[in-house]
Amino acid sequence: MKISILKQLESKIHGEVFSSKEFREFYSVDASSYKIIPKIIVVPKNEVDVLNTVKIARKRKISVTVRGAGTGLVGSALNSGIIIDMKNFSSIRLSKNQVNVETGVIKGNLDKKLEASKKFFPPNPSIGSFCSVGGMIGNNSSGSRSLKYGSVIDNVIEITFVDGNGNKITLPKNKKIAKQIKKIVNGIDLEKFPKVSKNSSGYRLDRIKTENDIHKAIIGSEGTLGIILSAKLQIKDKPRKQILFVAEYNSVIEAAKNCLEINKTNPSAIEFVDKTTFDQIKSKFNKKSKCLLFVEYDEKISLNEKKLKEIITGKIIKKLQTEEEIEKWWRYRDSSLHYSLKSIKKENRIPHIIEDAVVPLENFPKLFSILNKLNKKYKTKSIVYGHAGNGNAHVRLISKRKKRDLIKKIATEYFDEILKLGGSITAEHGDGLARSEFIKKQYGSKNYQAFKKIKKYFDPDNILNPGKIITSKSSIIENLEQF
Ligand SMILES: Cc1cc2nc3c(=O)[nH]c(=O)nc-3n(C[C@H](O)[C@H](O)[C@H](O)COP(=O)(O)OP(=O)(O)OC[C@H]3O[C@@H](n4cnc5c(N)ncnc54)[C@H](O)[C@@H]3O)c2cc1C
């Protein structure tokens, strides 16, 4: 008699295996509005457990989806088969300018360890300390300081993972695999990749210039190519001094225009918040203000201050120099998502779907014009904040009309306009359930074929997080919880 998948996993796994209703409910949601109930949850104790889970799943034709901290905004870590939770993979080994981390490490723990040596890992998602290193690599995350220091893809040296064949692979070390993947990459149409400073859509084959870059195919792959066990991250010395300016603008478009000039002064961050956020900040603002820009420098402070004052078109209202003050104001900016939720009645919230597009900075003002047009057409309102220096706007839509079709319509039109501006449908949150169906449009069929070849190479039976990145199905309005 054939034993059940659950029994087989229970007999092979040294860690824990769960299938009770409570656990399946817990793992059915993340920070998105989607919900998918999985069948089984595996919490592996070691890498043999991960290998065995994949091998069993492959034989028994059930999916395996890896989960970090579950803070993703588009349901990337949700699926119906096995969910594998990497929380026991928590070791951190620090050397001079690198750190070896297992992927269950929570960002806050990594930050603490690095801080003791006056170092930092640059990508800093606004979720702060709560996300995992695995999730950050899975989504190619970034944050305010990615303007100067790049996204995860710019700061990872090596990745060790288990692919869908059940093989443990280290890239770029494994030269045989690197050669085979590079061959696929040679066939891509680079012109169809957006020329933006951050991009988490599809597979980032555009970043593979030599075989030494092959691990970049895994970064941003949302658990569809492999379950990452550990990674070697590049770390930097903490800047000795920082200065943060907060400036008010009477026009959102004016602030968006000004970002291009400010960016030329090499700031470590330029962030944007609209009235929804600053209405929640306990400070006095001009009644006419429509938005704020946060501009930070972490080198050549006085020279950069002088340069900024020559080109800024808004009014500087804060010049913050102590660590305490700077942190306090960054907390306001990082709370924008929370403030946006606080300010909209639950019944008027539209799920995150168009919340993360990015355009070349010179087109950033046009992104706001597009939003205004869509808001008029569909009688919606929007709250915007985001990583302005990168041309990356986080948009929260508000509407009384809770129609699924409306969401799909708005998303399709918005993404079409973003593509016309040379942008990407997602800068840092990934494709997940909201955007995977738009990837072919984003990259064109030649590149999509290359993505499919990469998927087939690492996961020929499509067991790793199926339905994400490579899919022929529409999932944008399926499995939305409150619809
Ligand atoms: C309030 C708020 C603010 C946010 N701000 C930002 C921001 O500024 N910048 C930003 O980039 N993101 C932001 N996010 C989105 C999210 O927090 C980040 O993308 C985060 O890095 C995801 O990490 P996680 O551990 O929660 O991943 P999960 O949600 O658990 O997973 C994300 C993806 O990574 C995959 N994954 C997880 N672990 C592994 C692994 N070991 N191997 C392979 N794949 C893996 C999953 O399968 C999934 O596809 C924000 C979210 C919230 C709720």
Automatic annotation (TrEMBL):
Database matches in Pfam families: FAD-oxidase_C, FAD_binding_4
One GO MF term attached to the UniProt entry: D-lactate dehydrogenase (NAD+) activity
UniProt key word Oxidoreductase: yes
Coiled coil (residue ranges): none
Record-linked InterPro entries: FAD-bd_oxidored_4_C, FAD-bd_PCMH, FAD-bd_PCMH-like_sf, FAD-bd_PCMH_sub2, FAD-linked_Oxase-like_C, Oxid_FAD_bind_N, Vanillyl_alc_oxidase_C-sub2
EC class (word): oxidoreductase
Secretion signal span: none
Any GO BP annotation: lactate catabolic process
Domain FAD-binding PCMH-type: 34-238
Keywords: FAD, Flavoprotein, Oxidoreductase, Transit peptide
Top-level taxon: Archaea
Family: Belongs to the FAD-binding oxidoreductase/transferase type 4 family.
Designated name of the protein: D-lactate dehydrogenase (cytochrome)
Taxonomic source organism: Nitrosopumilus cobalaminigenes
